[in-house]
Amino acid sequence: MSDTTNDTEKRELGQDFMPKFDAQGLLTAVVLDDSTSSPLMVAFMNEEALAATRESGIAHFYSRSRGTLWKKGETSGNVLTVKSILVDCDQDALVLRCTAAGPACHTGATSCFYRKLEGDTLFPAIS
Length: 127
Prior knowledge:
alpha+beta; four-stranded mixed β-sheet; globular; 2 helices; Ubiquitin-like (UB roll)
């Protein structure tokens, strides 16, 4: 087996955390409400955001538009307290199960997923 095969096998079947960042150095992070499993938001994490999240227990992300680390709720107070982190099979995406201190969406909605698509029209999603 080549080193790549060994890394793939270790990443997919082993117990070591070996995050697989994309070409931009990012992982996709899906945030779920810990008590309801409802989706709250999707964001991206770089190595610094992941480390800050694991160290503090508060969700941190990487803003692609601003090119910087941001702590969710830093200005609004609507922090996301991480209860657990789930890692997908090839370790390039995470699910953060969190308790939200307030609305998760910058619009003030509880979740960023507050609309549903029917045909080509968006309608309010029923909670």
